[in-house]
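We read letters as residues; the integers encode the fold. Take this protein.
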Amino acid sequence: MKQIGLTGGIATGKSAVAEILRDEFRVSVIDADQLARDVVAPGRPALQEIQDRFGSQVIQEDGSLNRKALGGLVMANEPARAALNAITHPRIFQAIRDSLQRCEERGEAATVIEAALMVETGSYKAYDFLLVVDCKPDLQLDRLMARNQMDEATAKQWISSQMPLAEKRALADLVISNNGSLEELRLAVRDAWSTLLNE
């Protein structure tokens, strides 16, 4: 079974590509970002460990994780971010491995693992191919502002806090440029998928 990593920059269209793969090609897409949310759900051991490490201020009244409060604590604090990653990353990677095993048992020819920070964590190295979705900087900015209802300065700050798209493109086996319509993106995904399956 081919394992294909899918990533991109914020608001470049990674999720749209994943949706096209699911809906039109019936590909199993493992959403690592969703698994990351699942491992810190109420009642899961990781949430208790996060509370023990960072205090009750990172827990909402309903017992769920207060992502905003936790983000504020780890954003500019490298040791705190490393401590959080040590709690969550092994569990997320295990959940991905479990999902891949189920796909393999079903006899699927290829499976896609979608993750925002795949290059940053180095997890892309575990997969057979890396597919990167990118777009022009002005489009990325416009899409992010529209999607998150934020002003230009905030959107630029978010984008600049991420790894540059050029670095992700340099590591990619294939790049899908999402600069046009949804139909153009569908055609680009179709071409990319055909290429990957025939590699």
